[in-house]
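Quick one: co-fold with 5'-O-[(L-methionyl)-sulphamoyl]adenosine.
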Amino acid sequence: MSKRFYLTTAIDYVNGQPHLGHAYEKIVTDVLARARRSLGEEVFFLTGLDEHGQKVQQAALDSGKTPQAYCDELAAIWQAFGKKLNLSNDDFVRTSEPRHKAVVQAILSRLHAAGHFYKSKYSGFYSLKEETFLTEKDRRPDGTFDPGYGEVVQLIEDNYYFKLNAHQQWLIDYLEANPEFIQPAQRRNEVLGLLKHELEDLCITRPLGRLNWGIPLPFDPDFVTWVWFDALVNYVSVPAAHADKAVLSVLDAPELETQNPALELWPADIHVIGKDILKFHAAYWPVMLKAMGLPLPKIILAHGWWQKDGEKMSKTTGNVVDPVAVIDEWGVDAFRYYVVRELDIGPDGNWTDSGFQARYSAELANGLGNLVNRSLSMLKRYRNGLVPQRHNELEPEADQVVRQTISRLRANQPQGALQAIWSLVNRANQYVDQTAPFKLAKDPAKAARLDEVLFNLAEASRVLAVLLWPFIPGTAERIYSQLGLTESPDQLKNAAWGGLPVGHRIAEPAALFPKKETTKR
Ligand code: MSP
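Sure, here it is.
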């Protein structure tokens, strides 16, 4: 058994509404996970939910439920959301699960024993909404705090602190020496900029009196663990639950041994996260791992944020994109295609209904859909659906697109990969116009030429299905079944030209992306 390619997403707050931003991150990760599987690698793709904290405790209380019952209900919604997005995750973590809590406690015990924590009195400001301590630096010139912090109260309380500051120089040196660790480069610079200021030690507890919906501190029953110290650990608690030796060997906790078949997962190959949680992943998490004696993840890939119609999405103003409504109306693959094609990993993006519909119509319905439909329909009409002799006119272009797609997928550039794939879609559509098979069909003397053209079009459609599988797996599978192929287009090695067997009979063509009235703005 060898190490799997291990990808994670951020774990979503269970009490939020699944929206476009969450969907985007999970789809991007799913595309990278499927791409690796398609390249023949063994993959482990993890996503899940962040369930502890004050807000969840309060919301549960308000609804008359226990926090666990409240989370169970919401978790069902999130898991259904993942299915709706057609995610291929291998596990789904919930931070309220015993398997996760046990690992957090083992880590806390170990770090405590090794002297990484100290107890100290905190006196200062606290944002109830953000569940975070504020300092004088967070005040605005007029002395008030940003309204985003909600109600700010004064607190005096004991807490445990993690000695983060002691590792600051090590972290800077690591980032300098490993330029690929935080991607894209702009985000790496942001973290290096942040590290020009001194990092304060990290408060990792909340007193039980104030919060009980959290993981109890194993060495002091008066405290629970701060949500981030709990949440980040999901990336190693799930490997531990899958008996990953790399993690279990440093935890020194025989009670965590499981009967599960052992997987080799850690270190993660990619943590996909949004730009807002960069500090937690690129500063706190590496230091936590160093203290635990675990290797660091290979890449932290930080994406930008979506807006709608140029403004922040907000439930209160109703300015949101509901992925489920879009999927119900347009299909999951149209949604998956659009978000990955529209927004490169890095900058911020903007959803407009008209932009979505324009891509649907030009690139999916008239581009890919039309190509496959007319290629297969003509093969059916002119050759009774039988694949003619192999011909290689489009092979050089197809091969080049396959190479570009693979190298961009390996470089975690799914948008670039789609651009490459569409250059083949466009070339093949242009080929139909240039060769005019409907005219060739009228002249019996051109039968051999028509065979050539029909082979090139059917084979280009097949190659496209293989290339598209990581992005729009349902559509890729539909193309394969319309081609009468029973296997799955899920292996990129099958994108090599010439895979369509001569004499094979294709199945029934049908529209992949029905044309729609685009009435909405
Ligand atoms: N629970 C924490 C993450 C813990 S990871 C150990 C959290 N949850 S969240 O629900 O607020 O956000 C989950 C992910 O969704 C984050 O990566 C965040 O950046 C992303 N997005 C939330 N809103 C977004 C947009 N509007 N656009 C793109 N992604 C956004 O943070």
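If it helps, The longest helix spans residues 353-383.
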